[in-house]
Amino acid sequence: MSESLEVEDLVTGYGKQEIVHGVSLAARPGRITCIFGPNGSGKSTVIKAIAGALPVWSGEIRLADRTLSGRRVHEIVREGVVLMPQGGGVFPRLSVEENLRMGGYSIADRHWVDSRVEALIGEFENLGRRRHVAAGSLSGGEQMMVAIARALVPEPRFVLLDEPSAGLSPAMVHDTIERVRTLRDRGVGVLMVEQNIREALPVADHIYVLAGGRRQFGGSPEQIRDDAQLMSLYMGG
Amino acid sequence: MDLFLQALANGVLIGGILACLTIGFQLTFGVLHVIDFAVGGWVMLGGYAGYWALTLLGLDPFISLPLVAVVFALVGRALGPLIYHVRTSRYARPDLMALALTFGIFIFMRGGALWLWSFNSRNVDTAIAGPAIQLGPVALPVLRVVAFAAAAALSLAVFLFLYRTRFGLAVRAVAQSRENAGLMGVDVPRLSAQVYAVYTGLTAGVGVLLATIYSVNPDVGVRYTLFAFFVAVLAGLGSVGGVLVAGLFLGVVESLVAIYVGISYSHLVIFGALYAVLLISPQGILRRGL
């Protein structure tokens, strides 16, 4: 349990507007934890706050008994928590290799980053041939692969995924969710915000449902399937 | 024909300097999304700095240039956070507010220069002189060749910095997506202020070069702001590679117009050309961003 990523009574928002009103949740290494909920429920806000991209107003975020709340993005990356932005967020006019290098931007040891970049380019065999190609010229699926490889550069313990399937074709959504599964198989903990419940539910190990900036449900996929009311309320059947 | 070649050579030599002048302007637009009206003001102040370094310290402008660049980079580093703050403020129309701010800075620079140094033009003499280099029918003044070479070296340094360093990589990433670069751990406000420092330092350095060729007075800023706008729009706002082509183009057009049509027509022709470019290809001729 002590290796978990834990969020306790998180309150945060944009500017002066409070969006998340005291949410608690936990993600474990080697597990896929999904956050579902309608638009505006604060799910993306929660993971942006975990990554340090939004200030934590109150509450606490811990990873293995080390406090993450109140720290900057680059410090949180060094602690082993990386956020993959919505749609992958690759830099279109940087090459594949440069994109991966940006993934290691927060790490001071450049030789280490170089070796990580080489290892990942070797591992994702389609990337090797395209390492000097502008990422924006790749297909949607290849860009997603760049985004995932980039997220793995700092050797994270947890990857936060902000709606990885947003804006993708149905076939691509399936592909992307499958890739998320490979992250878990590496022992990385995944905390994923998703709209596409049909695709995400089968891979999820643990589920939270948010609505109106509050937690409405926390439990296993089996439990949520049994809860007909919750299914119809928040998940559209 | 000889006259044409001479005009072409003059144009290329000046165009290279104008291209260098616009690189920093483009960086600032790419990273901070600010169109800096004060670009000509930094050129003008750089020219004066070169003049005073020569007059008070006896430094040749080509020696004081790096010094001037460093001093103005420090000024830009101090000013950068304010520009960033205004541009990213959550109040209405931060883009226009930033434009108004830099316009105000520009007016302040010009007014301050007039008040301190009056309208007189100052020449910035350099030890680099001597007979022009004869290349067939074309005569290349040594000073202009050296100034061109200095501008080329500065431009090359900026390109190496952008494409060969970790910091340059981060600059390009921020230019493409501020938010995603922030998620990679880039301190965007700090990097933006640093880019503004590179811009002010580079532009003031170019100001020293231009002052050795044309002399400097408080009003030269307007002319260089217009030139930077022209080169930037022609290249495509935010495009750094395009300014090389666009700068040379501007230099050559201006030189040809000055020789064949008359110098008083040069702005007319330049802005006619700009108008045509905006009509035909509003993204600029080289469309590619940073």
Automatic annotation (TrEMBL), chain B:
The alphabetical list of record keywords is: Amino-acid transport, Cell membrane, Membrane, Transmembrane, Transmembrane helix, Transport
Which cellular components does GO assign to this protein? plasma membrane
Ranges annotated as spanning the membrane? 12-32, 39-57, 63-84, 96-118, 138-163, 196-214, 226-250, 257-280
Principal localization reads membrane
InterPro entries for this protein: ABC_transp_permease, BCAA_transport_permease
Gene Ontology BP term (one):
amino acid transport
GO MF term list: transmembrane transporter activity
Location comes to:
Cell membrane
Report how it sits in the membrane: Multi-pass membrane protein
UniProt keyword Magnesium, yes or no: no
Q: Cite a single Pfam family from the UniProt record.
A: BPD_transp_2
Annotated family: Belongs to the binding-protein-dependent transport system permease family. LivHM subfamily.
Instruction: List the PANTHER family.
Output: AMINO ACID ABC TRANSPORTER PERMEASE PROTEIN (PTHR11795:SF445), BRANCHED-CHAIN AMINO ACID TRANSPORT SYSTEM PERMEASE PROTEIN LIVH (PTHR11795)
Q: What is this protein called?
A: High-affinity branched-chain amino acid transport system permease protein LivH
Q: Which organism is it from?
A: wastewater metagenome
Q: Which gene encodes it?
A: livH_2
